[in-house]
Design goal:
Keywords: Amino-acid biosynthesis, Cytoplasm, Isomerase, Lysine biosynthesis. InterPro entries: DAP_epimerase_AS, DAP_epimerase_DapF. By secondary structure, the chain is of the alpha+beta class. It contains 6 helices and 17 strands. α3 links the parallel β4 and β5. The two termini are 17 Å apart. 45% of the residues are buried. Bound molecules: ligand LBFN2T5F. The site of the ligand N[C@@H](CCC[C@H](N)C(=O)O)C(=O)O has 19 residues, from α3 and α5.
Length: 290
């Protein structure tokens, strides 16, 4: 079984090409593979297949809005084995993998996700790195809520980018005090407001067109970046300035991406790096079972 390993601003993924949809991605298999001691280690897993093949195999009940049977589909799993609707950094790595492997020859194509179609533009592939823009679709405002992080309560904006986020902009945080925040424990959030869990972003206000952000991801823990989270962060930071549109550079522990919001829709531009490829032991994988 072949794999690749890649990351987008150090949000890292195991990429599993499975064009005939033969793999049974049980919770145990995904979580063991993503574990940094028992497996390869990653924040998430990206299965590569066509949308129609996933539907035929029963992985998808229906094709999400705007996704055709022949479109590529990013079947995304969090490190704990749970399924999530979307992954912004994952789509960049997924698109890069398709171009680098020769599975896709065009620079512009659609990547399907459970949140719907996510068209991509691969601007450049140079060796192990690529520069990719993802059309992230609509950014929906869910209203205000709070999260408590290490005993401090932050107020934020609930935002749906296909998956749920609570983006908390703090006027008093600097890049340095943000970096010092203890994010080892999961933030406490309103479970009635976010019935399916939430990804929590803490960020500074906009300064010189940029914010600094950290994130605690649903199904993973603190990661060094979250693409959908950067879109939510940009939307909340613009809102804090009474703006609904604009371009925001979002600095995360793993690097920097650019989010542009126009007309209630967002694009995300940033890097992808493919660091390794190899094979997973079939006997080990089979023994993990269901
Ligand atoms: N890292 C991702 C988001 C992955 C899904 C998230 N943990 C969730 O459960 O919604 C990104 O880059 O967007």
């Amino acid at each position: 079984m072949q794999f690749s390993k890649g990351h987008g601003t150090e949000n890292d993924f195991v990429v599993l090409p499975d064009l005939d949809v033969e793999l049974d991605l049980t919770t145990e298999r995904v979580s063991t593979l993503c574990d940094r001691r028992s497996g390869l280690g990653a924040d998430g897993l990206l299965r590569v297949a066509r949308a129609g093949a996933l539907k035929q195999a029963g992985v998808l009940d229906t094709l999400p809005s705007g996704v055709g049977a022949d479109d590529w589909f990013m079947d995304y799993r969090n490190a704990d084995g749970s399924v999530a609707e979307m992954c912004g950094n994952g789509v960049r790595v997924f698109a890069h993998f398709l171009r680098a492997s020769g599975l896709e020859l065009a620079d512009e194509f659609v990547v399907g996700s459970r949140a719907g179609a996510r068209p991509v533009v691969v601007h450049r592939v140079a060796g192990a790195t690529a520069d990719v823009t993802v059309d992230m679709g609509r950014v929906r405002d869910l209203g205000t809520s709070t999260a408590t992080v290490a005993g401090t309560e932050f107020t934020g904006l609930g935002i749906d980018v296909g998956n749920p986020h609570l983006a908390c902009v703090s006027d008093t945080l600097t890049a340095e005090t943000l970096a010092a925040l203890d994010l080892t424990e999961a933030p406490v959030f309103d479970t009635a407001f976010f019935g399916s869990g939430v990804n929590v972003e803490i960020l500074t206000a906009i300064s010189d067109g940029a914010v600094d952000m950290r994130v605690f991801e649903r199904g993973v823990g603190e990661t060094r970046s979250c693409g959908t989270g950067t879109v939510a962060a940009a939307a909340a930071a613009l809102r804090a300035e009474d703006r609904t549109e604009g371009e925001v550079r979002v600095r995360v522990p793993g690097g920097e991406v650019t989010v542009t919001i126009t007309d209630g829709k967002a694009t995300l531009r940033g890097p992808s790096v493919l660091v390794a490829a190899g094979s997973i032991d079939d006997v080990w994988w089979a023994a993990l079972g269901g």
